[in-house]
UniProtKB/TrEMBL annotation:
Protein name, UniProt field: ATP synthase epsilon chain
Database matches in Gene3D superfamilies: F0F1 ATP synthase delta/epsilon subunit, N-terminal
Similarity section: Belongs to the ATPase epsilon chain family.
Lineage: Bacteria, Bacillati, Actinomycetota, Actinomycetes, Pseudonocardiales
Oligomer status and interactors: F-type ATPases have 2 components, CF(1) - the catalytic core - and CF(0) - the membrane proton channel. CF(1) has five subunits: alpha(3), beta(3), gamma(1), delta(1), epsilon(1). CF(0) has three main subunits: a, b and c.
Organism encoding this protein: Lentzea miocenica
Membrane association type: Peripheral membrane protein
Length: 121
């Protein structure tokens, strides 16, 4: 099975790093899927996006990301987010409540938190 090294990092901490079989992320140019051996690329992550990493052990790492960059090199993938939360760390009830009560600036962030939890299953 082909694999690649992936790092998911936010400004304040490293959320996850390890070996993966694929990565998908939402960029300003659209959704991108990365498999091992992908050509080098640099993409800007959208505000309120979701990143999904399929690990080599069959697991799934899902995170709500808020801005930043995705970099693909010959050695792997780096996701450098301005802010990010792993789906397992998100209080989905609080996120849904924030989605209803949020102004436009916070609505994308709250929606990403809800989608990350929903897509982690």
């Amino acid at each position: 099975m082909a694999e690649m090294t992936v790092e998911l990092v936010a400004v304040e901490r490293r959320l996850w790093s390890g070996k993966a079989t694929s990565v998908s992320a939402q960029t300003t140019e659209g959704e991108i899927g990365i498999l091992p051996g992908h050509e080098p690329v640099l993409g800007q992550l959208v505000e309120g996006g979701v990143v999904r990493v399929h690990t080599t052990d069959g697991g799934l790492v899902t995170a709500a990301v808020h801005g930043g960059f995705l970099s693909v090199t010959g050695t792997g993938v780096s996701i450098l987010a301005e802010d990010a939360e792993l789906a397992g760390e998100i209080d989905v009830d609080a996120a849904r409540s924030a989605l209803q009560d949020a102004d436009d600036a916070e609505r994308a962030r709250a929606a990403a938190r809800v989608r990350a939890v929903e897509q982690s299953a």
